[in-house]
Amino acid sequence: MASAVCGRFLLHRSTSRFLFSSRAVPAFSSPFLSRGHRLEPGDDELYQRTTVSVMQKERDGGILINSYSSAGFNIDGNRVFGPCALLPPAILQWNVGTHKDITEESVSLFHMLEPRIELLVLGTGARLERIDPSVLALLKRKGIAVEVQDTPNACATFNFLVSERRVVAAGLIPPSASTALEVQQE
């Protein structure tokens, strides 16, 4: 009689709470006591609460740019010479020479990625350079935000976004060698 008055309860393992059912069921007719019973949608409201989570193994962090020079980049201890495309977790050589070589074709690898990237950081070298508006329009149509900066700032921005676990990629052109400190001979 007590089991007919009281609702049945189950211990929810992940939160250590009791879940109460509004249906009163005698303990001897519980489907959990029978070995061969398989839950069907109509058997129990817990059937609808069943969820499955698939978790991918992810690296603790993403790839980070340790340093840059006029020759290339040091990315997680890997030396990359010349322009590169960072598509975490991949590091690829990027076939561009200057900001003028950033075309719809050269950025096509960024919008074909799966899962789709949220943001593309473009480093245009030692100075911030203007990118062809048709390239920016293509990336916008594909749902990718673009941040165009000089390469030193682009590296810092990329590292910051990776540390926030954002889905980000980068196209980087090494900055040219600085001539600011050279002494002119007379």
What does this structure look like?
The structure is a single chain. With 186 residues, the chain is an alpha+beta fold. The chain has five helices and ten strands; from the N terminus they run H-E-E-H-E-E-E-E-E-H-E-H-E-H-E. The strands form three sheets. It has a five-stranded mixed sheet with strand order 7-6-10-8-9, sandwiched between helices. The protein is globular, with a radius of gyration of 28 Å.
The largest sheet has its strands arranged as 7-6-10-8-9
Low-confidence stretches: 1-23, 50-59
Q: What's the helix count?
A: 5
Main sheet record? 5 strands, mixed
Distance separating the two termini = 108 Å
- Number of β-strand runs: 10
Shape: globular
The percentage helix is 10-25%
Fraction of residues in β-strands: 15-25%
Rg, Cα atoms, Å: 28 Å
Quaternary class:
single chain
